[in-house]
Amino acid sequence: MGQNARKYPDLIKTTYTAGNEIGNHTESHPYIFFKSRLAITRQIEITDQLIQNAGYSGAIHFRAPYGLKLLALTRVLHRLKRQHVFWTFSLFDWRCPSPEKMFRRFRRHIKPGAIVLLHDGFTVAPTNRDNTVKLVEMVLEKYSAEGYRFVTLSELLAIGK
């Protein structure tokens, strides 16, 4: 989110220098269902600029808040030559379930090429993400040992072409 990029530009740098990509999730996480094309464009462009101002020069993929993609957003993304990247399944970590509960759901739904929805921190209100961090550690440990590779979204999209 742009508001977090503005607040924590060093975190963006730490993230991309570790080999990760930075995505755009709008500036303030609004319900874009109620926004005009101009307002949606501003949300995307402001966030892109904040990410680039933090020194990131890689691909900036986009996912709309709440996964909503309606007609106005579709038109904006087409004009910006962007796609809306959706997730394969969610672990509902914003509800703060235990790492074990999320891991069981992960095991039921994981398959090669899956995109898992997790949250990095603040979306609308401050939330403790300790359970999400523990889950990621559990997933990386178990599935890396089983031969899974965890790739950037650009790598995943390139594989699918």
Short description:
By secondary structure, this protein is mostly helical. It has helices at residues 2-7, 9-17, 37-53, 71-79, 99-109, 130-145, 153-159; strands at residues 89-90, 116-117. A two-stranded parallel ribbon has the order 1-2.
Text of the CATH class of the largest domain: Alpha Beta
Counting DSSP E segments of at least 2 residues, the number of strands comes to 2
Residue fraction in strands: under 5%
Mean pLDDT: 91
Named CATH topology of the largest domain = TIM Barrel
- Which regions contain 5 or more consecutive residues with pLDDT less than 50? none
Query: Architecture of the largest domain, CATH level 2?
Result: Alpha-Beta Barrel
Largest sheet strand order: 1-2
Which bin fits the share of residues in helices? 40-55%
Biggest pleated-sheet summary: 2 strands, parallel
Number of domains: 2
Give the ordered list of helices and strands: HHHHEHEHH
Strand pairing plus helix content: what structural class? mainly alpha
Q: How many separate helices?
A: 7
Fold topology:
Elements: H1 2-7, H2 9-17, H3 37-53, H4 71-79, E1 89-90, H5 99-109, E2 116-117, H6 130-145, H7 153-159
Parallel strand pairs: 1-2
Helix pairs in contact: 3-4, 5-6
Describe the 3D structure.
The chain is mainly α and 161 residues long. It folds into two domains: 1-86, Glycoside hydrolase/deacetylase (TIM Barrel, Alpha-Beta Barrel); 87-161, Glycoside hydrolase/deacetylase (TIM Barrel). Helix content is 47%, strand content 2%. The protein is built from seven helices and two strands. It has helices at 2-7, 9-17, 37-53, 71-79, 99-109, 130-145, 153-159, and strands at residues 89-90, 116-117. A two-stranded parallel sheet has the order 1-2. Strand 1, helix 5 and strand 2 (116-117) form a beta-alpha-beta unit. The model has no long low-confidence stretch (mean pLDDT 91).
